[in-house]
Amino acid sequence: MPSTAAADCRPYLIALVLLLAGCGEAPWNNPHPPTPEGETVYQSVMSRPPKHLDPAISYATDESLFLAQIYEPPLGYHFLKRPYELVPAGVRELPQVSYLDADGEVVPEGSEAVAFTRYTLDVREDAHYQPHPAFAKNADGEPLYLFSDAAEASAYRSMHDFAETGSRPVLASDYAYGIKRLADPELGSPMLGMMSRYIVGMQAFSDTVSAVERSGWLDLDNFSFDGLRVVDDHRLQITIHGVYPQFEFWLAMQFFAPIPPEADRFYHNPGFAERNLTMDWWPVGSGPYMMVENNPNSEIVLLRNPNYRADFYPAEGAPGDAEKGLLDDAGKRLPFIDRAVFTVEKEVLPLWTKFLQGYYDRSGEVHANTTGFFDQAFVVGPDGLEMSGDIANREITMTPDVKPGVYYYGFNMRDPVVGGYSEDKRKLRQALQIAYNMEEYLAIFAKGNGIAAQTLIPPGIPGHLEGEEGINPYVYDWVDGQPRRKSIEYARQLMTEAGYPNGRDARTGEPLKIFLDVQSQAIGTTSMNWIKRTFEPLGVQVEFRPADWNRTREKLLTGNSQIYSYGWLADYPDPENFLFLLYGPESPLVCQCDGSNNSNYENPEFDALFVKMRLLHPGPERAKLVARMVELFRRDAVWLNAHFPKEIYLNNSWVHNTKRHGISKGTLKYLRLDPEKRAQKQAQWNDPVTWPLFAGGLLLAAMVLPGVTAYRRRQNQTVR
């Protein structure tokens, strides 16, 4: 039997042994579980969980990160080409477009008799849904999981409780069913109002369904929808009012993804909603991935859809893509990644630390967080923003992304001080535009992460021009191949011509004071002080009116603002999606609605050009109209300032095909990882410093063993 002293020492000796045994090859601090054998696992982050995962009601960028991987709408976007280009996704080719008169007879494009446009979709025959219990059937071919009451369904608490799954091909009728769900008022889709203007019979369908008394699942296929015609299993026709070429862009959004009625019925089982067994929690799609874990407070896991169609990496791209290695995988089967894990990281330090340790593959998916999370990664060099030496030495690469969006301060054109269309009012606004040095603002407050806007159309969108022809000549001069902001002296001259010499009203002698309505959480004291100082050379005083978004929006809807802050991100890559921000009927004061023309800009020429432009397909005539509208926007000085947001994402060296897409979030399938290199770097960057532990172990042994020896000596003496 061991001595008492030896027994007392055993825990210390065991700890020492375990300590020494832990010195293996795998990093000790890896926060992720071991990778399943044979799987390529992608590790990423999300700052907040998605609120909606039902494609009919989701409209948030963070949510599209998941929906774009799970669902496949009729169209998508070419991964590499710029400007952005539509490509077939759930259909075999781009829609066939025909034009109809009031009697439904086909007429030529451009005919004055055109009353309707019909889109014919040829659905792919190789598209199948992910495995899902909604498709499981019993021996009689009936749905296996269809329950008559809550008690019968009570055994199923989560999606993991369903032992059986099934699948089936995607049908044209599924796309029709998805559109019918957009029209179902019970869902509250944000698309109902918008699409009811175009899709024939959508509002009538909605009104019919809203009058039906419900008890459980309502089969929407039991109700007619004039604008939808299922020709056969693989052909669907959608008819819209008039001509609206931008409708094709909507067909690339998740709103138009196929929805199998079986899934809709499955999630309407009694008691399922109370246990989050809903389409808003567990999507059912035909895209490259399917959701297998949804723990919104910890992680969301996507797994490769084993039923995903044949899909291949593009063989051509934009200029320069080949040199960047973005065509190395041309023709290879997609997707490359087997499993994608998105972990919730709400704090800055853990995210940054784990990325540097190699435990996250990229710095972010939706938001780069370069200005907040990764300040220490960048320095401002002679050529702009650069990675710091320590980061660059890790072979970390940057992926810049100029978002197809614009943030701006807009004038209320109905305001008696800064509004109006007379020449003196234009000169006043132009002087204020010159004084607000957006380049300086971006350099100070955004580390240059943005581009001062010369127009309201962002880069990558048709109608955006670069170089000398793209500058705003009312605010900039072209000097030595670069745009140069006009001088403050010239701005003072404009102020005098506008009737405000030295910033005072020439009639009353009162100083000019301008009021900026801003969101309280979107601006800090430092930036407000900077803005005030930038107008001091003109003698203009600035007063900020911070408020929450609801109060700010109320002011915009009622026209009670003078200068307001706003932003817009593109729904689709077309100049119409930005020019409508100035379309007269979109003014909240005109439409008595939540319109987007918050400047209340009313220019008959602009409005007439906009109506004509939106009916044209891309081409020289349309480009000419867009250029004229941009000129009117510049001449009338509708916005005080604007910039195009720019973010820089970080990628660890083992991540390939990292090009960002400003419109589509369905790019996960293109990413490729080098797991061996990742494991190598993780081991290198997380090599533990073990000598203090060894030293501590030896010290422990040195302290314990003399006591053990002395105790045994006394025991031996006692025996004698």
Helix coverage percent: 25-40%
User: What would you call the shape?
Assistant: globular
Q: What share of residues are in beta strands?
A: 15-25%
Q: Tell me the number of helical segments per DSSP (H or I, 4 or more residues long).
A: 21
For the record, the CATH architecture of the domain at 405-647 stands as: Roll
What is the CATH homology-level superfamily of the domain at 405-647? Dipeptide-binding Protein, Domain 3
Q: If you had to describe this structure to a student in words, what would you say it looks like?
A:
The chain is an alpha+beta fold. Among the domains are: 4-23 and 688-719; 405-647, Dipeptide-binding Protein, Domain 3 (Dipeptide-binding Protein, domain 3), CATH 3.10.105.10. Helix content is 29%, strand content 18%. It has 21 helices and 24 strands. Strands 14, 15, 16, 19, 20, 21 and 22 form a 7-stranded mixed sheet that branches. A 5-stranded antiparallel sheet has the order 5-4-6-8-7, with helices on one face. The chain has a 4-stranded mixed sheet with strand order 1-11-10-9, with helices on one face. The longest helix is centred in the C-terminal third of the chain and has 29 residues, at 691-719. The protein is globular. It starts with a helix and ends with a helix. Residues 1-7 and 15-24 have low confidence and may be disordered.
Task: Please give a quick description of this structure.
29% of the residues lie in helices and 18% in strands. It has 720 residues and is an alpha+beta fold. Among the domains are: 4-23 and 688-719; 405-647, Dipeptide-binding Protein, domain 3.
